[in-house]
Structure formats: structure tokens, C-alpha cells
């Protein structure tokens, strides 16, 4: 049995818990963005808009001749929009918005699944690896999650009009604006590194689970390793 088979076995055995945990992490992620906006700007959202995504996709396909342009537009077309509208100015100005495009929702969903799988694998891996390595793997999972999460931020702020949404998020989190803009060209590389770290930690956890299963087959007992 390989590490990939251990992962597949874990997913099959705990699929309902995995789905619930992953969905919960997605909700927590977007809830955390709203919390940051509230503490930084002092306003909770006062409107939610759901878009007709299939109709918008059909319109994009009809009006965009180049597939190379079509796919990025479709992936970044919003499904939902949550925001705060300031009605002190005429019909209102959206002071901040959190748009949810499928591309970033998919990235957060994948990261949430990997985190949930790691948590399930950790329950067994804690019997088969040393304390320092367990902490390192948990740290790798956290680092990968934070990296993917930062680049997947989908905020717009009237003060930063026209700025990429994850750069707005970094600015709202308190990062120096100049540094945030310096990071912008490396977004794809940063999120790729985050997923690689998450995947590596998952495979390492699976490797330790394989060790546990081998020990159980040999002795019928879990190994006692501090």
C-alpha cells in the first residue's frame, strides 16, 4: 500500500466528516474576512447579491472569441457578492465588497479538503512519529493554509479602487502597502507553493499512517512512540 492509497482509504472511511469539516472551513474563511473588515472599517455587510452565474458564463462564451481570454473571465466571474453600501452618497457607494468567484472558491475548497484530510491522518500519525516531527507537519499544514488563504482573499475597497483583491486584503490586514504591491506579481507562485506545502504534509502524514497500519498488521498493537 502506498501513501496515496492511505489517503484514498481515509477519504472513503470518513467522507461525511470530511465534507462537513471542509465546508465548515470554507465558511470560517469567508467569515474571517468579514470580521477583518468589521474591525478595520467598522461596518458589517448590509447587502448580499447572488448572480446568475450560468447565464453570465453563457454571455461570456458568446461575446469572447478567444478561449484563452474566455476561461480566465469565467473563472473570475462572481457567484456571490457581500458588501457594505454607504448611502450617504446618492444611490449609494459600495465601501467594501467581498466577491466570491469560482476560481478562488475552488482554491479554498481544495485547501480545506487537504487540511481536513491532514487532521484525520494526524489522529493516527501521532502514534508513529516523534513529537518534533508531528509539530513540524502541523506547522507545514498551517503555513500552506495561510499562504493559500492570503492569495485567495477576494476583497474590494473603495480606497484601493482597481487594486487586485488579495492585495486589498493584505493592506487591510496591516501589511505595508508598498510591500503588498511588490508581492502582487508573484501571486500565482505564492499560491502554488502553498498547495505544494499542503500536499507534502498530507503525503508525509499518510506515510506515517502506513507505518501504523504495518505495525498493526504485524503485532495487532499501535506503536508507542513519544
Structure, explained:
- There is one protein chain.
- The protein is of the alpha+beta class and 226 residues long.
- It has a domain at 3-42 and 103-218.
- The chain is built from 9 helices and 4 strands.
- It has helices at 3-13, 15-41, 53-63, 67-75, 102-125, 131-151, 165-172, 177-183, 187-219, and strands at 47-50, 80-86, 93-100, 155-157.
- Strands 1-2-3-4 form a 4-stranded antiparallel β-sheet.
- β2 and β3 (93-100) form a beta hairpin.
- The radius of gyration is 21 Å and the shape is globular.
Rg over CA atoms, rounded to whole Å, is 21 Å
The average pLDDT value, as a whole number, equals 81
Q: Specify the structural class.
A: alpha+beta
The string of secondary-structure elements, in order, is: HHEHHEEHHEHHH
Number of strands: 4
The main sheet orders its strands as 1-2-3-4
Q: Fraction of residues in helices?
A: 55-70%
End-to-end span in angstroms? 25 Å
Number of helices: 9
Shape: globular
Biggest sheet architecture: 4 strands, antiparallel
Strand content: 5-15%
Unreliable sequence segments? 221-226
What oligomerization state is this entry in? single chain
How would you summarize the topology of this molecule?
Elements: H1 3-13, H2 15-41, E1 47-50, H3 53-63, H4 67-75, E2 80-86, E3 93-100, H5 102-125, H6 131-151, E4 155-157, H7 165-172, H8 177-183, H9 187-219
Antiparallel strand pairs: 1-2, 2-3, 3-4
Amino acid at each position: 500500500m502506498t501513501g496515496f492509497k492511505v489517503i484514498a482509504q481515509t477519504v472513503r472511511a470518513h467522507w461525511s466528516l470530511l465534507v462537513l469539516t471542509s465546508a465548515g472551513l470554507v465558511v470560517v474563511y469567508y467569515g474571517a474576512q468579514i470580521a477583518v473588515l468589521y474591525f478595520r472599517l467598522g461596518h458589517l455587510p448590509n447587502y448580499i447579491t447572488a448572480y446568475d452565474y450560468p447565464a453570465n458564463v453563457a454571455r461570456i462564451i458568446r461575446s469572447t472569441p478567444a478561449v484563452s481570454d474566455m476561461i480566465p473571465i469565467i473563472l473570475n466571474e462572481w457567484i456571490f457578492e457581500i458588501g457594505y453600501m454607504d448611502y450617504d452618497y446618492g444611490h449609494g457607494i459600495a465601501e467594501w465588497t467581498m466577491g466570491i468567484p469560482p476560481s478562488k472558491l475552488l482554491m479554498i475548497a481544495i485547501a480545506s479538503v487537504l487540511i481536513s484530510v491532514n487532521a484525520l491522518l494526524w489522529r493516527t500519525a501521532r502514534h508513529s512519529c516523534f513529537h518534533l516531527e508531528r509539530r513540524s507537519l502541523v506547522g507545514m499544514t498551517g503555513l500552506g493554509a495561510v499562504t493559500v488563504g492570503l492569495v485567495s482573499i477576494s476583497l474590494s475597497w473603495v480606497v484601493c479602487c482597481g487594486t487586485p483583491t488579495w492585495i486589498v486584503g493584505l493592506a487591510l490586514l496591516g501589511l505595508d502597502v508598498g510591500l503588498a504591491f511588490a508581492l502582487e506579481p508573484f501571486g500565482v507562485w505564492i499560491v502554488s507553493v502553498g498547495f505544494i506545502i499542503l500536499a507534502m504534509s498530507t503525503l508525509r502524514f499518510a506515510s506515517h499512517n502506513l507505518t501504523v497500519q504495518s505495525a498493526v498488521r504485524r503485532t495487532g498493537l499501535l506503536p508507542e512512540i513519544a
